[in-house]
Design goal:
The complex is a heterodimer of chains A (about 475) and B (about 475). Chain A has about 475 residues and is mainly alpha-helical. Chain A is built from 23 helices and 7 strands. Chain A is globular. With about 475 residues, chain B is mainly alpha-helical. The model of chain B has no long low-confidence stretch (mean pLDDT about 90). Classes of the chains: A mainly alpha (about 475), B mainly alpha (about 475). The interface between A and B is medium-sized, with 25 and 29 residues.
């Protein structure tokens, strides 16, 4: 690697890191509800040394399963709380380095790879699920990207060894290691369909990692497999949630999460890549195909899918960019090559950096939940949409539903019933449903009102069971 | 690491392929469940056979079963209960002890027979031991060695008879013929496997003409079963495909890692002989087809699976790998997967069924209810209602040849989830249901997930119609007034 490229790469990494750390440290709270679920998990590990197996506050009591490595690792970090802000930022910024090396492998062009690396630092979807969040995907995302890099460079002994180690680590971190199995399967299929021989070494590591990931997941998710069968993979996404996504599906919104540049150059790159039948391109294409396959069968949450999809498109953008620069060198504009590079950097700032910044939720307001902690008895059941569930349980109150759907009792019915309680006109129906879940309090803020397109609960005045405690909280006593 | 693994392999391979070591391990693995659960009568099928054999001991062979599905024709394979009756009369061993110990003894003998049979085919010691270990760790074999089921005895008889055939001694072949003659009493699938195995054996290793005398067995099987074949059909019961794989269901399906090894095995067979092995492909295909029609055939399909899987492991081992480390790790993972499936199945089946709480409730039903009363519960408790409470069930797991089984299962489903009191009362009256048995498992996902779903709502809100007469640690009995 040239020194100049290395300098630029370090600079890109530092810019990305500064951006992520700035956003994390300037916020008083973590973003995202899952951060609070994880914080509670870490506290439990610190207190008992054991993972949380039964959560009596989630879904008013339910079993929890999952791979333990992420929680143990971050529980250790949580002894110094600032690390919970810094380490995820470093992990996210490491994507720039991985993206550089993969696109270098795809294009062999340092300038293009540096641009792709810069592009990978600001993908708007990061703001929704990674920045200033304690999310398992902070670890899964770079690990999966690193595995892809190792797979591309598997002939190199160092990358081969790293791949073997990562094959053990990834399934220990999260069940989304199944994504990697799908990537490998699609890679295999694409190679066969394109008549490109798969090297012996690659076949071997595919077989090895396939069985290893399968075995480790079976060890950790045995119970979920027995309960859901193969539905386990998509059983974690309730039908009600998928329906909501599909009903509110806004293609423009999805594009804005991925970013204009990765979308345009990525699709162009995909087209070029298939024409060139390049092996490294097929690996990245397999990632995109794998994610689309999971979307199609509802096996993955939309935002998580978009995260991996956008990464795939960013990598493929390298081919689109290279083709653009190659074209420019053939024209009279070739002498303005530096200008075009600079222009692309400006485009990244305009079309990726700013959207990422503005999409980020700068302030997660938890004052209502803090109020609950002070004024509501411990263990009371608070009704709120699933996306507020972890906030409620973090402050010691029971939720009716949260976003941890795997093995959740009746997740689909609960989501439907919560929607019904917020939207119904019928007082009796709402009371019946709330009695079912032994609800004591109802939470309703402006976002919830906007979500359900209501001004308030429509039946509040129809009976004596529901009483307003505060602008956003009702008590239910019947 | 590679050298260490190779050293370990060289050191321990001679030991683990030794027959006495295989048999010792086999016995230890098979006995684990018994040590965890105790040597007690447990499971649906053993309780079913206990009831039928007990009835035969006291009253002879009946023509009508008054208890299952509220009453039905006695169309069960009689081989197992009659054998239990004979052993009971001959050796004066209690039926309970026979039902508890026979699976363990026969399971162990199954493994010895499999070893002896494949030894006759001059397989390498490695492949031979892999077959035995894979079979030992496969959920179907563990199941039939733990519970006296429909296949426990006929599977053993099939292996024994086939072993006598492969010994190629005339006197033993005569004995095997007699054994095969008993198979029709255990059901079609057992005869089918025996005959198809013999047919392929004689075609491949001897002369087809030697198979002809065995056609008499097919004839006997047809005659014995003709009456209810023509009257009631084949009695095939559909089952969810996920039941075929143990990892994604709780049933005694195939180990998922054995399935992958099976695929490697098939690829080896294809590589070695291509179209020369059409016989093998046909044999496998026919067996898969029968498995599709009848889940109980899984015990035989599993035997084929483990044999091909053992070749699969050999294939993986003999393949040229560019990295010895990856090769060794992959083999370790595959073997660990097979071991994990086996022990996971043992763990899942280590509890006594029915639980002491359920047993007490069933005994309560036996004490306090009328013999004509029909008890409504989930179908997995039907056999226990018959055998422990000695009362009629509404439905049970033996739905083949049961009267109106589809209607009853549909009604049961509607009864469980409907909140219509009129419909419930109408159904109770139509099927003469007097009591409802509810277990904690039914309330926690087996049927309901919430306290006031369907029938639970009706029970709670209609005290003038339903009265709870028993409640012990979540097991409830409700009387319909």
């Amino acid at each position: 690697m040239k020194k100049k490229s290395l300098k630029y790469l370090i600079l890109i990494f530092l810019i990305s890191l500064s951006f992520n750390i700035f956003l994390s440290l300037t916020a008083s709270n973590f973003s995202g509800d899952s951060s609070y679920y994880n914080l509670r998990f870490f506290d439990h590990i610190k207190e008992t040394g054991k993972p949380l197996v039964y959560d009596d506050l989630s879904y008013s009591g339910r079993f929890i399963i999952g791979s333990p490595l992420f929680h143990y690792l971050f529980a250790l970090l949580s002894f110094l709380p600032i690390l919970l802000k810094i380490i995820p930022a470093i992990l996210l910024s490491s994507i720039t380095v991985i993206a550089y090396f993969i696109s270098k492998e795809i294009t062999g062009n340092s300038r293009v790879s540096l641009l792709v690396s810069f592009l990978s630092s600001f993908i708007p979807i990061y703001s929704l699920i990674l920045i200033n969040q304690i999310s398992v995907y902070s670890l899964v995302f770079p690990l999966l990207a690193l595995m892809m890099l190792c797979f591309v460079k598997i002939e190199d002994r160092r990358f081969f060894n790293l791949f073997v180690v990562l094959s053990f680590l990834l399934p220990l971190v999260h069940s989304s290691s199944f994504i990697f199995i799908l990537v490998l399967l699609f890679y295999f299929l694409l190679m066969i369909s394109e008549n490109i021989p798969v090297s012996r070494g690659k076949t071997e590591v595919i077989v090895f990692s396939f069985f290893l990931i399968l075995l480790i997941n079976m060890l950790f998710f045995k119970k979920a497999l027995f309960q859901y069968g193969l539905n386990f993979i998509y059983g974690s996404v309730p039908a009600a949630l998928l329906r909501d996504y599909l009903q509110n599906l806004n293609i423009l919104e999805i594009f804005s999460y991925i970013g204009v540049l990765p979308l345009v150059f990525g699709i162009w790159g995909l087209y070029i890549g298939f024409k060139q039948k390049k092996e490294s391109v097929l690996i990245v294409s397999s990632l995109i195909l794998g994610i689309l396959f999971m979307f199609l069968f509802g096996m993955i949450e939309i935002n998580i899918g978009l995260l991996f999809l956008s990464f795939g498109l960013v990598l493929l953008s390298s081919l689109g960019l290279k083709s653009l620069f190659d074209y420019l060198t053939k024209t009279k504009l070739s002498k303005f090559s530096r200008f075009f590079t600079f222009a692309f950097v400006i485009l990244i700032i305009l079309l990726s950096f700013f959207p990422t910044y503005y999409l980020y939720n700068h302030d997660t307001n938890l004052s209502d939940f803090e109020w609950m902690k002070e004024n509501i008895p411990y263990g009371s059941v608070v009704l709120a949409p699933a996306e507020y569930g972890h906030f409620i349980s973090y402050y010691g109150r029971e939720n009716v539903a949260d976003t941890n759907y795997l093995l959740a009792p009746n997740a689909n019915d609960r989501l439907n019933d919560i929607d019904e309680i917020y939207t119904t006109w019928s007082y009796n129906k709402a009371v019946d449903l709330m009695k079912n879940y032994e609800v004591n309090y109802i939470y309703i803020n402006e976002k919830i009102k906007n979500k359900y397109k209501i001004n308030d609960l429509k039946y509040v005045e129809d009976g004596d069971c529901i009483r307003r405690l505060k602008e956003t909280i009702y008590s239910f006593n019947c | 690491m590679e050298t260490v693994l190779e050293d370990l392999r060289k050191q321990y391979t001679p030991l683990i392929v030794k027959p006495y070591f295989i048999f010792l391990i086999s016995f230890l693995v098979l006995v684990i469940s018994f040590l965890l659960r105790g040597f007690v009568l447990s499971g649906e099928e053993p309780h079913f056979f206990y009831r039928i054999s007990e009835f035969i001991v006291s009253n002879g062979i009946p023509s009508y079963d008054y208890l299952s599905f509220g009453g039905r024709f006695f169309l069960y394979p009689l081989g197992t209960p009659i054998l239990l009756f004979i052993l009971n009369q001959l050796f004066k061993v209690s039926l309970t002890n026979l039902i508890v110990f026979i699976p363990l003894i026969l399971g162990f003998l199954d493994l010895i027979l499999v070893y002896l049979i494949f030894k006759k085919f001059k397989l390498s010691r490695g492949t031979l031991s892999a077959i035995c270990y894979f079979l030992l760790l496969s959920p179907p074999l563990i199941y039939i060695s733990n519970y006296l089921g429909y296949s426990t005895i006929p599977f053993f008889l099939n292996l024994l008879a086939f072993y006598f055939i492969v010994t190629q001694k005339s006197i033993l072949r005569l004995v095997s013929f007699l054994i095969y003659l008993t198979l029709p009493f255990f059901g079609f699938i057992h005869v089918f496997f025996g005959m198809i195995l013999l047919l392929f054996y004689f075609l491949k290793y001897e002369k087809l003409s030697k198979f002809f005398p065995f056609l008499a067995i097919v004839f006997v099987a047809s005659v014995i079963n003709l009456k209810f074949l023509t009257k009631f059909g084949f009695g095939a019961v559909s089952y969810p495909a996920r039941d075929l794989i143990f990892a994604i269901s709780g049933s005694y399906g195939f180990s998922i890692f054995l399935i992958f090894l099976f695929i490697f095995g098939i690829s080896l067979i294809w590589k070695n002989g291509k179209y020369k092995n059409n016989f093998v492909y046909l044999f496998i295909l026919i067996n898969l087809l029968v498995l599709y029609l009848n889940f109980k055939y899984i015990v035989y399909a599993n035997l084929i699976l483990v044999v091909v899987a053992a070749y699969g492991l050999k294939n993986v081992y003999k393949m040229k790998w560019s990295s010895l480390l990856i090769k060794n790790l992959t083999i370790i993972i595959l073997i660990s997967g097979v071991i994990f499936s086996g022990f996971s199945f043992i763990h899942e089946n280590s509890d006594v069924s029915p639980t002491p709480q359920l047993k007490n409730a069933l005994e309560f039903l036996n004490d306090k209810t009328n013999p004509r009363d029909v008890i409504l519960s989930h179908q997995m408790y039907g056999v226990y209602i018959n055998s422990i409470a000695k009362r009629k069930n509404f439905v049970d797991s033996n739905s083949a040849y049961a009267p109106q089984s589809d209607t009853r299962l549909y009604t049961l489903d509607k009864l469980f989830y409907s909140k219509s009191l009129d419909f419930a009362l109408e159904s109770f009256s139509e099927f003469k249901i007097s009591y409802i048995l509810i277990t904690p498992e039914m309330k926690n996902g087996l049927v309901w997930s919430r306290n006031n779903e369907g029938l639970l709502y009706l029970l709670k809100n209609n005290p003038d119609v339903f009265k709870m007469i028993y409640n012990n640690e979540g097991v409830e009995i409700w009387r319909i007034r």
